[in-house]
Design a protein that fits this description.
Largest sheet: 7 strands, antiparallel
Order of helices and strands: EEEEHEEEHEEEEH
Strand content: over 45%
Structural class: alpha+beta
Number of strands: 11
Radius of gyration: 26 Å
Length: about 240
């Protein structure tokens, strides 16, 4: 029998091991969330208790827990969960739902969500008004790139709560040619060159939107290439 623990960003995990395939784990984390859950898979059974200001998870893996898990899951090889959660201004209820998949054929009661704010004040509706559009050039150190900038005033409001609407002016920038910068280099598919083909951002003017796009590309060049400069295309012989 032995124990070990691991420190997390806002909490810790502690394990107690006995035998070769048996263990008990306690996980404690700080954070605002309210939920109760039971998760059953082919390895362990976990009970989660999250009374608003912290989260506590108790997991056990042993012979009897595996037999109980097999009995509860029945013919399904996939783990199951039963939970009651309150977050993002909604109530979420799962009744013996699959842990890793969702299907239209699932019964309605398996995944149930209620948004009280939508019920009482109506769902948020989004509308937009085009203010202006212009074809322009995006100035970069190596050369300018053609782009189209469309300025829109966008509004989000609820039908029965119109005075609490949210409005923002945004620039929608489209660069069909793309403005190049190095790839992230974190995976095989992004080790080469990449490009930014557009940006949508809060901006009161066309110039402010263009400035944010330039800053975004230069930031990517510095982060992944080490310099804001970009290689010039070599003229063909």
């Amino acid at each position: 029998m032995f124990t070990h623990w691991h420190k997390e960003d806002r909490g810790f995990r502690w394990w107690l091991h006995w035998g070769s395939h048996s263990s008990f784990c306690i996980e404690l984390a700080l954070g605002w969330r309210f939920s109760f859950s039971l998760d059953v898979d082919d390895e362990d059974i976990t009970i989660g208790i999250c009374p608003a200001i912290f989260s506590l998870y108790l997991s056990i893996q042993c012979g009897w827990s595996r037999r109980l898990s097999d009995f509860l899951r029945g013919k399904s090889y996939e783990g199951r969960t039963a939970s009651f959660k309150i977050h993002d201004w909604a109530i979420w209820l799962e009744l013996w739902a699959k842990q890793m998949s969702w299907s239209r054929s699932d019964p309605w009661w398996m995944h149930w969500t209620w948004h009280p704010v939508d019920t009482f004040f109506g769902r948020t509706k989004h509308s937009e008004l085009e203010i202006s559009s212009i074809d322009t050039m995006i100035p970069m150190p190596e050369k300018p790139y053609p782009a189209r900038v469309v300025m829109k005033r966008e509004t989000w409001k609820r039908p029965r709560l119109p005075w609490a609407s949210h409005r923002v002016t945004r620039a929608h920038i489209d660069c069909k040619e793309g403005i190049p910068h190095p790839g992230k280099g974190e995976s095989e598919y992004d080790c080469g060159d990449d490009a930014t083909y557009g940006l949508t951002c809060p901006a009161e003017t066309v110039e402010e939107g263009i400035a944010k796009l330039v800053q975004s590309v230069l930031r990517s060049r510095r982060r992944y290439g080490g310099s804001v400069n970009w290689k010039q295309e070599q003229p063909s012989a």
